[in-house]
Structure formats: C-alpha cells, structure tokens
TrEMBL record:
Catalyzes the reversible conversion of 3-phosphohydroxypyruvate to phosphoserine and of 3-hydroxy-2-oxo-4-phosphonooxybutanoate to phosphohydroxythreonine. The lineage of its organism: Bacteria, Pseudomonadati, Atribacterota, Atribacteria, Atribacterales. This is Phosphoserine aminotransferase. It comes from Thermatribacter velox. Its EC number is 2.6.1.52. It is an enzyme of class 2 (transferase). Pyridoxal 5'-phosphate binds at residues 78-79, 104, 153, 173, 196, 238-239.
Length: 362
C-alpha cells in the first residue's frame, strides 16, 4: 500500500525533494549496475568516488566557487565546526570576532571560548531578544576572522547584507540557508553547513575552504580535526558518510537540473516567504516578532494570541497533514521552515489552514 506524504515544515532534518527520494528508492537494491546498494559499496570504489567528485563539482557550480575554494565533507555536524573553525583559523595574537544573533551563534561563541582566549563579540542583538540583525559591525584589522550565522534558524532572522570586512575573512554558518539565495562567496574564508536543512540528510557537513585559509592551520592539530586532511585526501582520509554524500549529490543535481540553479531557487523562496509574511502582516491573529527587513525566508516564526491556541494550532495542523510547525523549545510559539525542499504548494496549503484556524478561533 502507498503511504500518504504530508507537508513537511520540519526545522531539520527537513523536507527533501520528492524526485530525490524516488531516485534513492529506485537505486536502493543495485546502484549503477553494481548489484549493491550505496550503503554497501566501498568508499574507495570508482562508483562512490564519482558520486563524491560530482557532488563537489555541483556545489562549486551552484555557489559560483572558483578554484580558490575547496569543498570537503566532514562529520560531526555544524556543531563540530564551532570548534574546528577556531582550531584551524585563529591566528596567534589576533582575536577571533563573532556576531551574536542568538542560539546557534551563541553556541559557536561558547565553543570558540573553550579553544581561544581572545574571543571578541563585536555585535549582538541580545538586547531585543535576537529579533533583528546588528547593522554596525566594528571591524579591527587585527581580527583573525569574523564569524556570522547567515540565517538564524530558531530566531527567524537572516543576514540580507553581509558585513564588509576588507581583508578580514568572513566565516559563516550557513546551515539553514545554503543554496537558498545567490551571494558573492569571495569574502568568505570558510562556509560550513550541516546538510540536513537545505542540502540533504543528517550526517554530513559541507565545508567550503578558501585556499589561503589553509596556510594558517597549526601543524599540531589531531588529524581528523585538521581541514588539510580533508582537502588533501579529497574527504577520503577515513570512511566518509557515503549515503549522506550520495543524497547531497542528488539534491544538488535536482537544484541544477530541475530547478535551474540557485537564482531560480531564490525566486521560488521569495514567493514562498512573501506569501506567508504577506498573510501574517494582513491580519492580527498571527504575529511575527522580527524586524521586517531582517526576516528569514527559511524559518518563519510566529505567535498566536496565547500558548494554548499555539498548542491547538500545532495539533490541528498535524492532523491536517501539516507537520513540524512547533517553535523551538527554547522560544516556544510556532515556526514554519520553508527550506528548498518545501514546495510553494505546501505554503499555499499552510496559509489556507491558518486563515481557517483564525476564523474559528479569532
Ligand atoms: C541546525 C543548525 C546547527 C546545528 O547543526 P548540527 O548539524 O546539528 O550540529 C548549527 N547552526 C545552524 C544555523 C543550524 O540551523
């Protein structure tokens, strides 16, 4: 019997494109004539190496990365990058700088403080509960790098204009908005993104390293915590998360071939976000707390008139086949995650449900 699919607004792991899931199913018992599944073949086989190399090529094309950049796959999630970035990229005598936009960026800062003495929080939006993106970022020529979280998954804010840092490399946690919009990668020394929001399944982190950053890596790091290992061994020093990389390659292919690239994806994401924010702004049963120019297109947070109504909203939506709308446990409320894998149709159905729920409970 065929099971029914629901509309998935999960914050992560999150919705994947149907054509990707169908291909995975089709190839499950025998991958490219090997008679084995991707879960069973050697990571040293030519079939897997081709998957990995194609994934890297597609990511480079999608993000307009020239040959100054390396793309590697690392386990341990974005959370391990909170530590690997300062271990690899902090320079002696030069503070590392962070902007605190809440939750994940706060965690990145706390992790950095375990590793480096001189962590400088140059700007923060804590004063207004992280409902905006700081605009004045003081840059010192002496910083090792400036770290930002490009999209704040839990607070529902997103950077629409990256800080100008001159010669100081930007470092960005793009876990929840990579491939969702066009940007100029050149100012970024490091970009990292756990795959499970916009790029594939959990278990792999895409790390993009500008080659000049490799020069500053200390020689005494443990092998598996050193970016050089992953660059020099093409992410194959040890057994990589083969299945996750295989799905990332398919998601990247879907983006290139079915959607038409990141610019086309951005237009779809714009439509989805405009539809939902447009509705929220047109009435007063649902409220979005974020400063309008800093709103995230990926994670739309909203409140209803009471926590009781929010609970009922999530329950009824789930029954209607709209899942994942509960806000993060640290902030409460509701949240619709509109990642690349969420089609416009899902947002249309959500807005219709929201209207109907407001009519009954308003
Ligand atoms: C989900 C998320 C993380 C945590 O990722 P893990 O892969 O679970 O470590 C970090 N940063 C951002 C912006 C996220 O959205």
């Amino acid at each position: 019997m065929k099971e029914k699919r629901v509309f998935i607004f999960n914050p992560g792991p999150a919705a994947l494109p149907i054509p990707v899931l169908e291909e995975v199913r089709e190839e499950m018992l025998s991958f490219r004539g090997t008679g084995m599944s991707i879960l069973e073949i050697s990571h040293r086989s030519k079939e897997f190496e081709e998957v990995l190399n194609t994934a890297v090529l597609r990511i480079k094309r999608l993000l307009n990365l020239n040959d100054d950049f390396e793309v590697v796959f690392i386990q341990g999630g974005a959370s391990l990058q909170f530590a690997m970035v300062p271990m690899n990229c902090a320079q002696p005598g030069k503070p590392i700088a962070y902007v605190d936009t809440g939750y994940w960026s706060t965690k990145a800062i706390q992790e950095a403080q375990r590793i480096v003495d001189d962590v400088c929080i140059v700007a923060s939006s804590k004063d207004r509960n992280y409902t905006y993106i700081p605009k004045e970022i003081p840059i010192d020529d002496n910083f090792s790098y400036l770290h930002i979280t490009s999209n704040n998954t839990i607070k529902g804010t997103q950077w629409w204009k990256f800080p100008k840092t001159g010669n100081i490399p930007l470092v960005a946690d793009m876990s929840s908005d990579i491939f969702s919009r066009v940007f100029d990668p050149r100012p970024f020394g490091i970009i990292y993104a756990g795959a499970q929001k916009n790029a594939g399944p959990a278990g792999v982190t895409i790390v993009i390293i500008r080659k000049d950053m490799l020069e500053r890596i200390p020689k005494n790091l443990p092998t598996m915590l050193n970016y050089t290992t992953f660059v020099e061994k093409n992410s194959l020093y040890n057994t990589p998360p083969c299945f996750a990389i295989y799905v990332v390659e398919k998601v990247a292919r879907w983006l290139e071939e079915n959607i038409g690239g990141v610019a086309a994806m951005e237009e779809i994401n714009r439509k989805k976000a405009n539809l939902l924010y447009g509705y929220i702004d047109s009435q007063d049963f649902y409220r979005n707390p974020v400063q309008p120019e800093d709103r995230s297109w990926m994670n739309v947070v909203f409140n209803l008139p009471s926590p009781e109504l929010e609970k009922l909203f999530v329950e009824e939506a789930t029954r209607e086949g709209l899942v994942g709308l509960k806000g993060h446990r640290s902030v409460g409320g509701c949240r619709a995650s509109l990642y690349n894998g969420v089609p416009l149709e899902a947002v249309e159905v959500l807005v219709d449900f929201m209207k109907e729920f407001a009519r009954r409970n308003g």
